[in-house]
Write a structure and sequence with these properties.
Length: about 100
C-alpha cells in the first residue's frame, strides 16, 4: 500500500480553511494544528473523505489528511493506495520510490 500527495484545486470555495475546519468539527476529525490568524490547518486522516481521479473514478484507500494555509495552498496526503493503482495512475510517485522498470 502506498501514499500519494498533491495540491488540492478548489472550485467555488471561498475559504478552504473554513471548509475543512467546519467539516472536522462536524464529523469529530482530529485537528493536529489550527491557527485562526494565518488560517492554517493540519488534520489527521479523514477516512470518509472522498477523492476522485481526473477521470471521475473515486480513489479508494485509508483516507486523506489535509494540511495547508489559506494564503498558500492546501495539500492532501492519501494513504492505502494499491501498487497497481500507483503504477497506472501515479507512475511518477511509483518510479520515484521504486525506480523505473
Amino acid at each position: 500500500m502506498g501514499v500519494i500527495h498533491g495540491k488540492i484545486n478548489f472550485e467555488n470555495i471561498e475559504s478552504p480553511y473554513e471548509l475543512f475546519k467546519s467539516y472536522c468539527k462536524k464529523y469529530n476529525v482530529v485537528i493536529n494544528q489550527d491557527d485562526k490568524e494565518f488560517k492554517f490547518i493540519d488534520t489527521q486522516v479523514i477516512p470518509e473523505l472522498k477523492v476522485y481521479l481526473e477521470n471521475g473514478i473515486e480513489l479508494n484507500g485509508w483516507g486523506g489528511a489535509i494540511t495547508g494555509m489559506e494564503k498558500d495552498d492546501f495539500e492532501i496526503q492519501f494513504g492505502g493506495i494499491t501498487s497497481e493503482l500507483m503504477q497506472t495512475e501515479f507512475k511518477h510517485h511509483y518510479d520515484e520510490y521504486y525506480g523505473t522498470e
